[in-house]
Amino acid sequence: MENQPLGNLVETDARSRVVLPGHGNRRYIMEDLPDGLILLQPAVVLSESFP
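Now predict its structure.
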């Protein structure tokens, strides 16, 4: 069986941050799933004063 890469390896920094190449200045809702997966869903944040 060949070893095939599963995707990009990411590493957190000392403040638990991760860089997502190509996805700068965006917001996500993060869900930490029981099986250890982390799900990121794109989010739009609106203020309470939004008309």
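DSSP finds no helices and two strands in the chain.
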